[in-house]
């Protein structure tokens, strides 16, 4: 009977596994086709224009919109049904983060619409349709993720796999398009900066695909064109966050989960004052450094060198602090004896893989800079600061990844059930003189003042009391026993104090690293990129090869900082 009952479930898993494989292959081919189309437009391939790329992206967004509308309508008709939820997926702080990025993305879309109106005489209609479609897509997608990011789909699983994976790779293509557009803008500014540093032998002409006609209102055109590039970093983060949340939803399709209560872990500012203060100092100083860097770089050779030197010294100091904090946190973990949670969790697994995978972008740039410093024949003074900076980037990410991955895999500390309450009872002449407040107000019975009764405190057991003289003797013996027992419980208080101190240190470290990662996300996201500007790597590797490496690795490096900040926020809530 057991074999017969198990056969259908085993056989039924094959279609679902095939659907997972087929849907993943569909998504990959969808992405590769869009990636080649994007590349063809970037290199001016014959017969490929920007309108072709935008038409492809608009089609993908419309298909996703139809699928999301169908899913939302079907969910409304079945809203009374009890559905399984993945409590680890779609955390509230993650939804709030993606909502913030989505709002800024909508501002970006409005700028693009205004830009199209001003240049409508020479722009393709697709450049006006695209931001409108993208705005509608953004609004509906954020609503969908708020309502259904935790869903574990158990019906129409084959169809839903294709719909979700289509959404994942649509967002990845929109992310790629944003990265490419923002990178082309950075390259144009990069060439001008290198000329001021004395690298005048770079004669590559970069095309920014500017419209071939005059703007109807020059002032508005300038505001729209400049504002678009400052908003692109938020658009890029929005799409990569959306794709990761949708990927977790895709992995959860058909998954069987254990039904257990998930404890909510809200964020609290209590106990993390030190970490927040130091983190805010780093954040404030980083913003000041970025402002000065963007003002000074490219003005003259001396100012550009001073800007690079200032950036490297500040980054070296911050990275050294982050390495120290990460080492302290890992040492505290080594002193604790707590088991790891190895249960199946797609969201947690994806977090760990993204940390290591996206860190490879920074590691690639750092090793390139180290090799350039070693192999270069001439070394301007500011380039020597690049060596400790690059080494610290490698070490800091290595330590931080260990800390985050171990933190998200550690089981939360459980309250010792053997100690329900701890009281110190002082007895004089058979009467209770004082009762100190308990650590946890857990009572097995209520005692009234003046009645001579003392609550029983023996590991949560219930004590029977008698009204007669024998009962009084029994109460007296129990009270004496409770005094002896409470003396042995002082070890619980001392142990708990040590645990609280360790936890407070870990929370402060997590808060400090959270703000530091936000700080280190700002410079590359808003154009402060010494990998572009110091010029040494271009001499050693060549201009075009190094620019290709930077353009491929930089988006992953930027995403790493934002993803690390999100993971550290979760660590702070969990600790």
UniProtKB/TrEMBL annotation:
Single Gene Ontology BP annotation: inner ear morphogenesis
Principal subcellular localization: membrane
Transmembrane annotation, as ranges: 26-47, 53-72, 93-117, 129-146, 229-250, 271-295, 311-333, 354-379, 509-527, 539-560
Family as reported in the entry's similarity comment: Belongs to the otopetrin family.
Subcellular location: Cell membrane
Bilayer topology: Multi-pass membrane protein
Organism name: Urocolius indicus (Red-faced mousebird)
Protein name: OTOP1 protein
Entry GO MF terms: proton channel activity
GO CC annotation terms, alphabetical: plasma membrane
Pfam family, one: Otopetrin
Keywords recorded for this protein, A-Z: Cell membrane, Hydrogen ion transport, Ion channel, Ion transport, Membrane, Transmembrane, Transmembrane helix, Transport
